[in-house]
Amino acid sequence: IAADDFMTMVSDNVLLAQSLFGLRLANDRPRVPLAAPSRLLPDHASPGAATAARLLRQDPLLSRASATQLLALTAVAPEVPLKSGTVLFDVGTPPAVYQIVQGEVLLEHPGASPQIAPAGATIGVADTLAGNASGWRATVAKDGRALRLDRDELFSVLADHVDLMQGLFCG
């Protein structure tokens, strides 16, 4: 089967795409579920959709996404408050993408060094695509807010933006 035909099949079948992401990323454990920001943007205090989209683009899996595609992702991601000491997700929690807008999140995994996700970081893209819990515990270290993109909403956007889904397989 030709690569173009295969990508068309994957793009037309969200369940197939979800399964393939799971297979592709299954052996990549323990993966730090964090894409640290390459630089902090000055407008974190009052971010709009464009800022959130720029932050999402810093994740390697989303680096090829267009502005329209990133804006579609942020449009379905509600803002959630981050309260210091609150567990954002635990070892077995279903995966979701978190874009830290303000605040900090401490990520812990048995046998791995703790990681701090600062404002601007994206957490959980690969795990959400694969449909697997990360195995990490995330605790809010500093008050703030984040965007949360659940798996169903992510794949809803991917179904509408076939070229984005294809780009994720190429990345």
Q: How does this model look, in words?
A:
The chain is globular and about 50 Å long. It has helices at residues 3-12, 14-25, 49-57, 67-75, 125-130, 151-160, 162-170; strands spanning 34-35, 79-82, 87-89, 96-108, 115-117, 122-123, 137-150. Strands 1, 2, 3, 4, 5, 6 and 7 form a 7-stranded antiparallel sheet that branches. 35% of the residues are buried. A hairpin with a 6-residue loop joins strand 4 and strand 5 (115-117). With 171 residues, the protein is α+β, with helices and mostly antiparallel strands. The mean pLDDT is 83. Helix 1 crosses helix 7 (162-170) and helix 3 (49-57) packs across helix 4 (67-75).
Gross morphology: globular
Kindly estimate the percentage of residues that lie in beta strands according to DSSP: 15-25%
Derived structural class = alpha+beta
Number of helices: 7
Unreliable stretches, pLDDT < 50, 5 or more residues?
none
- N-C termini distance: 20 Å
Compressed to H and E, one letter per element, the order equals: HHEHHEEEEEHEHH
Overall pLDDT level: 83
Helix content: 25-40%
Number of strands: 7
Rg (C-alpha, Å)? 16 Å
Main sheet specs: 7 strands, antiparallel
